[in-house]
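For the sake of clarity, the format in which proteins appear in this thesis is described at this point. The fold follows as a row of integers, each naming the local backbone shape at the matching residue. One such record is shown here in full, so that the layout can be seen directly:
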Amino acid sequence: MTVKHEISHAQKRITHGVYVISAKLGDKVNAMTAAWVCRASFEPPLVTISVGHTRHSHDMIRDSGVFAVNVLGPDNVETGRHFGLKTGKKTDKFADRDYDTKATGCPILKDAIAWMDCKVVSFHDAGDHTLFIGEVIDGGVLKEDAKGIIYEKESFFK
């Protein structure tokens, strides 16, 4: 299926932040940079992430039922690039990164501005992606005055 240029051009105007989605399956951890993250509910606190079927983290999240959202700020552009330019199938992305773990065991980046530790409550096929809805079972802000960054593909991965 080919998407009309006008539709793709319009969709690029939707504003997204930049996040690192981390996963844990058994004793393996991985993470990926993502832009398609949003709040889904106040009560219970739910977030939705959209993960491509071909991403290494996809099956880890589906099979483990857990993930964490690390919110990136202006000082985290290099972090976003690090987790977005290589696959975790061939690279230990956490080999040189400081992180903590909380309830789910998913990595919480020490340099993120905020984090949410989540348990998958449902997932839904969405074309070439899966929407994972997670209940936030723990979370925190690490940099009180920092704001999230806005994702712009043309400048972010240059």
Observations:
- The chain has one domain: 16-156.
- The two ends are 28 Å apart (CA to CA).
